Amino acid sequence: MFSPIQLIVGLANPGKEYADTRHNAGAWFVEDIAREAHAKFKVDSKYHGLHTLIQVDGQPCQLLIPTTFMNLSGQSIRACMSYHKIAPASLLVAHDDIDLPVGTVKLKYDGGDGGHNGLKDIIRHLSSRQFYRLRIGIGHPGNSDDVVDYVLEKPSKADRQKINDALIAALNILPLLIAGEMQKAMQALHTKE
Predict the structure, then answer these.
(1) pLDDT in tens, 76-113
(2) Residue 142: its pLDDT value, please?
(3) Strands, DSSP E only, in 48-189?
């Protein structure tokens, strides 16, 4: 039996100037969940982030968007996990991924940081790689020297629509994630009609 997801974190950089940039795709997902659940985020200084609690089919789940910069996300996540006694296997981190085409979304357990500074910091703070990731494809600029600028730019209208469509597909598997039905969740998400 897989662990039910008890904490979903959306990675982002804080501040209005970053809100619509590709690097904040993880936060877009968590904001969508909160919107669907009619939940309001509150600034919570003990978690260094925006936090709320939702219920899905009677199961509680914490939502968190760190308000630290991306490369310091681990501090926020560890604080929330410690307070609520959540194990890494019950954590889902939603993040942008340049290695996936725009509008692709993949669920993955365990693994490295793939060069993502947010994931790098989370792995360091948790001393574990054994957590779930929702990888949200934002595409690659084509040249590795352009990656930093690329992730901090707004996607085109067409790309944003593809990402939004992918986030809707991910929202549809939320009940499976929170029930710990990971195989079914992966199957539903990774199977294209």
Answers:
(1) 999 999 999 999 999 999 999 999 999 999 999 999 99
(2) 93
(3) 49-56, 59-66, 91-97, 105-109, 132-137
Which residues form the domain of 152?
Answer: 7-190
Smallest Cα–Cα separation from 177: which of 169, 164, 186?
186
The count of structural domains within the chain is 1
- Residue 1 covered by a domain: no
136: alpha, beta or left, given left = phi > 0 and alpha = psi -120 to 50?
A: beta
At residue 107's C-alpha, the angle toward residues 101 and 111, to 5°, is 95
Query: What CATH number does the domain containing 50 carry?
Result: 3.40.50.1470
Q: Which are the catalytic amino acids?
A: 23
2 assigned to some structural domain: no
Distance CA 115, CA 107 (A): 17
